[in-house]
Amino acid sequence: MSMFRLRAVTGSRYLRSFLHGGAANRDYVLEQLGICSGEDQVLEVVGKNKAKLTVNHVGCAIGMLWHFQKEKPQMLRTVEFIKSHPEFLTLRVLAENKIELMDDVMLVDMLYNVLRLNVEPYDSLAQQLVSEAWLRLYRFPMPSLSKFAVCLSDQHLQHSPPMGQITDILDQKLSSIDDARILTTLMVSVSSLVSPHLRDKLINKADHLLDTMDPSHYNNPRRMVQFLRNIKYNYRPLLEKCNHILLRNVPHLNAENISIILGLYQSMQFNNCDFRLAAKQRLMELVDSSADPFSFTKLFVALGPMAGEDTKERLESTALLLAEDFNAQQALAVAETLEEIQCRNLNLIQKIASVVHKNLHVYKPMEIARITQALILLHYQSPELFNKLRNILVQFLLDSVYPYEVTMLTRVLSMLPSPRLDESVISRVEAVLPQCNLNDLNTFAMAVAKWVRNDPSYRHSTPSKYVRLLQTLNRCGHERLRKADRLDLVLEELKYMSGEWFEEMLLEETMVTLQRLEDQISWTNVPEMALFLTRTNHLCTPLMDRIASVAMENINKIHYSATYATLLPFAVLNYDPPRVDELFDICIQRVIPHISSFDPHLLVLLAYALAVADCFPEDLVREIFNVNFLAKLDSQLETLPDALNKRVRLRLMELNRAVCLECPESQVPWFHERYCLQLQKKGNGSISPVQQQIHKMFGEVLGGINCARVALLTTYFYTVDFECVLDRHHQAVAYSEQSQLQISGDGKVRWGSDSVGKDRSEVPPGAQRVAVDFLDSKSFCKNSRHMKGEAMMRKRHLEILGYHVVQIPHFEWNSMELSTQDAWKEYLRKKIFTGLPSST
């Protein structure tokens, strides 16, 4: 056993020099260290030889202490025991006194090891080691340079001058680096400081090293993905190459590694189907062996959101058994996962909340914010706990000097029911606003809106303290947009912007800024710009023309999967740029050779967007509507978040309907009847007061309420707001009583016998079905009366079903011109009878 231990630690260069030094140079202290089989023996040797310890002895002893810890599972490590041991204090004092005697490699190794042994960054030893390393920085070998960069990151010194110098050295010596581990470690460490030029150089080098490295070293591609995540650059060629290597390694990954990779992918919105399916299978294999708090927590975080109901119940049962053994961090991780999977196991939630309650003193500011948010969204009820959390949040907020921290703490604080807000909190928020980006300002605006609504004095007027805060928010937002000079940074800040404040106060200014910077639109940011315009529903033709032009010129540089985002605003906003047919054709041609490489859910979303634009590529339709593809899609959807799962299933139904109606020659069957019936049952079946008002007047215009039907379900499950049948003389035909849909007093619809429009033969010869649709604001672009693509597609489909379609825009119905009953009736009369086919 002693010989085995000796071999295990001979990786130390100090022990190597001893073993090869010969009898004349024997070092008996190193010999004693070399036969140690555990931390206690190392510390015992140190205690017996305090007066003899040289710099090599100190370096070797501390290195061995970390080596023994590293070899143990996390739950069996005894770092705190070592840290508090008197002989470890001796080693620390000796190390600090001998820093100048350390060579470059030993110096960095010493810093790395003491940080791993939980010596605080503010400890004098750690600070002296950092200072000395900074002085020697430019002579470090690359392995030591990368290790020192990790140490700086561990101490939250990513933006420090030494890290800036490391970035400069990396730029100068990049061509000489041929070790993927060294390169990727440096990439992650300096990610907050890289320029676009250095970013591209690093990506090219990383791409080259992926081809030459041992593919079993999965941490290298994992760090490359982490680098892309850190710099917020979704470079798909490198991302997919990394994913390919990670996918090959899934059978050897543990739950922690899988959880890390899935977290990186999620933050980059990279839902790779093959990896998720392989990861789920691997995690299921690990369920039985993950019975301790540490391994189970990692498994639960990774598998919980992807698991089926039976597996979730099993995981929740295990969590309930282990709950009392969870530490503070494990309880936080489990609570967030319970919120993500929308757990309703009250006993488990109570147990986890109890562990959290006991550990409130342990959590850092962002952790307190996360745990508070999770408990709120889990609908946990405990006034005592939430009152404590509120007090802690307020104190952390008042003490924090980091804008991102103040933003998160403020957002979560606004989620809590609370009395009047302290002036000190408002003052702290106001002080940090000038340092905030657009997304943070938007978060503050939503928090202020909640505070205003919850303030008892709001019923009379908006309190002046909130008015002042909103004025500062508006000023800071406008100033930030006017000073912006880099489009990529603006788009990054706008990525998750939404809500009333943004739309009312900043959206117009944002469009002015984007048009001012439109020369910076390039193939790299076209997808992001297109997604922003789609999300805001804002029709800005100069920007969309520019997107179309750049896309057509650079289509081969744009990743094939990004064609979905690129085309989306043109379909959704129903805008045809110059050469629109060429734009769609060139994008489709970019996609077709890579159809089999698309994630199934993304291919469905792309095909639906094309269908909205009345475009049905034959290859795409054939690929999606085959048994193998649909089976793979089903498997993938089981691993996706619930909201995305539901959205993709809805889009598949709508695509199926569009293909059946507009491409009957493709012979795709309609297979969503049961799905639509389930959706119908889940719906509340109610109609709005406006619809009831129109229905009543509609009946008066047609000559009787029995001449109009409301909320009619057509074939393929479109819901028509109102339907009537006009004979060849344009006279309304009355419906039979049993086919009438009745409206109850609360607006609920009771379905008649013909609710799905199956019997079309009842229409008299020469008669015309008329569908009247009320179009609310969602059917139009935000900044104009331009109708969106889905409303146009719906009109096409109803016409194919045999309807004459009458659309009533909300801005016409609610206009000043239609302020009387007679005016509304005349408006309906013109809408219904104008444009009807002439009688035969």
From TrEMBL:
Top-level division of the source organism's lineage: Eukaryota
A single GO molecular function term of this UniProt record: kinase activity
Residue ranges of the TM segments: none
Residue ranges constituting the RAP domain according to the UniProt record: 770-830
InterPro entries, A to Z: FAST_2 (IPR013579), FAST_kinase (IPR050870), FAST_Leu-rich (IPR010622), RAP (IPR013584)
Gene Ontology biological process terms in this record: mitochondrial RNA processing; regulation of mitochondrial mRNA stability
Location of this chain's protein in the cell: Mitochondrion
Pfam families attached to this UniProt entry: FAST_1, FAST_2, RAP
Keywords: Kinase, Mitochondrion, Transferase
Main localization (coarse): mitochondrion
One CC-aspect GO term: ribonucleoprotein granule
Signal peptide bounds: none
PANTHER family: FAST KINASE DOMAIN-CONTAINING PROTEIN 1, MITOCHONDRIAL, FAST LEU-RICH DOMAIN-CONTAINING
Name the record gives this protein: FAST kinase domain-containing protein 1, mitochondrial
Originating organism: Salvelinus namaycush
Gene for this chain: fastkd1
